């Protein structure tokens, strides 16, 4: 759950980024950003985001939400992510992480878990040393089976 203080801080940071790009935080953009912030642990498609924004702003249109997330993606406020379903989803990039965070994707239930630790620091160093390539960012999705699904599998075995 995001606190009111964090919501205010992140909203202010995003508004500053928009202003630096010569853009305003319009009421429609603000409603979209607030919805992203309130659902920061979810990986929403534009359509899912639209449905949530529409609850608070019934006059907003789908095209407005699409344009807003594209502007936010261009400014690196959100990242476009695609999992196995092939649908583009938007993941809020908060100020607590230098690199884009990693994901654990359960191939049984589809649950996505975020890892906010930078697990690839050593890999980045090796890439620099071996190839002279400076990594600015990276994305890592590990696919497997989550704890809940593993527990269900074990329970099913135990019940036999």
Automatic annotation (TrEMBL):
Keyword Transcription included in the entry's annotation: yes
Molecular-function GO terms, alphabetical: DNA-binding transcription factor activity; transcription cis-regulatory region binding; zinc ion binding
A Pfam family assignment: FUR
Cofactor(s) demanded: Zn(2+); Mn(2+); Fe(2+)
Taxonomic superkingdom: Bacteria
List of residues binding Fe cation: 138
InterPro entries in the record: FUR, Fur_C, WH-like_DNA-bd_sf, WH_DNA-bd_sf
Record text on cofactor binding: Binds 1 zinc ion per subunit. Binds 1 Mn(2+) or Fe(2+) ion per subunit.
Gene3D superfamilies noted in UniProt: 3.30.1490.190, Winged helix-like DNA-binding domain superfamily/Winged helix DNA-binding domain
Keywords: DNA-binding, Iron, Metal-binding, Repressor, Transcription, Transcription regulation, Zinc
GO biological process, one term: regulation of secondary metabolite biosynthetic process
Database matches in CDD domains: Fur_like
Residues that coordinate or bind Zn(2+): 106, 109, 146, 149
Family of the protein in this entry: Belongs to the Fur family.
Name of the protein this chain belongs to: Ferric uptake regulation protein
């Amino acid at each position: 759950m995001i606190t009111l203080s964090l919501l205010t801080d992140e909203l202010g940071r995003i508004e500053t980024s928009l202003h630096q790009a010569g853009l305003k935080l319009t009421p429609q953009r603000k409603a979209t950003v607030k919805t992203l912030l309130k659902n920061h642990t979810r990986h929403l498609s534009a359509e899912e985001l639209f449905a949530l924004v529409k609850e608070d702003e019934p006059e907003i249109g789908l095209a407005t939400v699409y344009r807003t997330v594209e502007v936010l993606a261009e400014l690196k406020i959100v990242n476009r992510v695609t999992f196995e379903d092939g649908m583009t989803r938007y993941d809020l990039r908060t100020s607590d992480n230098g690199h884009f965070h990693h994901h654990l994707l359960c191939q049984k239930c589809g649950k996505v878990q975020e890892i906010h630790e930078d697990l690839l620091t050593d890999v980045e160093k090796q890439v620099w040393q071996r190839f002279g390539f400076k990594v600015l960012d990276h994305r890592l999705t590990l696919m497997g089976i989550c704890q809940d699904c593993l527990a269900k599998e074990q329970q099913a075995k135990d019940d036999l």
